[in-house]
Amino acid sequence: MSSDLDVFVGNTTLIDEEVYRLWLDGHSVAEAVARRLRGGVLEREGTSVAVLQSDTRDHYRTFQMLERLLHAPPRLLQQLLFQIPPERQALLIQRYWENWEHWGAAHTEVPGGLGGTGNTGRDWEHWGGCSYSGTGGTGGTGRDWEGLGGTGR
Asked: Residue ranges under compositional bias (Gly residues) (predicted)?
């Protein structure tokens, strides 16, 4: 006698928008934790400082792994490793590329051949049904990865 069993396992990648903004703004994990503490997250969430530190560090690791995909948005939209809903992917990409101008990368080439060869303009192609606008760039942000065992991006 044989039985069929179907199993589905899901693992949606959780993204805290506040922590993402702190990461994009170049804050270290320690600075991000301090800002979150000042913002009253312990009272809102009913958690401890140790859990907040761990959560922030985990988010920063996730963002570090996502960054190579954020450099080429079509890769993020097509990848299967991170289970991120399409609307959240669009938000991550949009906010990531909005920061390029702030990082001083406004005059570098758009990565991945997006928007045409050598395009440095703001009118980008539609990616995966989503429209984005921002300034392209290549290279890392130059932020230090304190406490993550990394040497920068």
From this structure: 134-153
